[in-house]
Amino acid sequence: MAKWLEFFRKHAGRPAGKFGLAAAVIVLSALVAAVLFRGGPATEEKKTALKVIDDQADLYIKDVHYTEVGDSGNRLEIYADSAAFLKKENQARFEKVRMRLILPDGKIYELTADRGRLRTDRKDVDIEGDVVILSSRGDRFTTDRLHYSDGEKKIDTRDAVTLTNPRFSVTGRGMTLLLKSEQVTISGPVRARIE
């Protein structure tokens, strides 16, 4: 800074030196500010203010609790981290799904999965991604995806499935669970282990 001051005093003279020095400091400060705020390298990435939401969704909700009571007396409770409702497609999409299916006779099935899709007109549900079903009898089913048909009152999958309970363990490919009779059919190459 001392070199700048000496330079301006030699060239500007004493009476104009103070004014010239002040003008030079202002111009130099403006140049430094312009480089820092406009032309300098960006050190921060811009953060997205909003998460991109499905453009087709009519309604997007976080921390969802959805309850549906059917004509047959079945009660379907869906809890999810988020949901997108698509009215034209009669569909609701859920993320991080926890479902409870309560039958009129008191039997309860609890389902969890990464994603789910509810057909709001038929009350059918498709869920996928680390699917686990727990029955009130103590049965545990695991698979990658499954379909619940409200009209047929059944749960089925074509994927690999494992059924475990305190007495035995069964694995296979494909399963049908009839909810009224609690009849389970496991297809494909089946392996069983009795405890």
Beta-strand segment tally: 10
Question: Which spans of ≥5 residues are poorly predicted at pLDDT below 50?
Answer: none
| Ends distance | 86 Å
Shape: elongated
Amount of helix: 10-25%
CATH fold name of the largest domain: lipopolysaccharide transport protein A fold
Label the structural class.
alpha+beta
Given this structure, which CATH class of the largest domain is correct? Mainly Beta
Shape-level CATH architecture of the largest domain: Sandwich
CATH superfamily of the largest domain: Lipopolysaccharide (LPS) transport protein A like domain
The percentage of residues in β strands lies in over 45%
Note the main sheet: 10 strands, antiparallel
Give the count of helical stretches.
2
What's the rounded overall pLDDT mean? 80
* Tally of individual domains: 2
- Write down the Rg: 33 Å
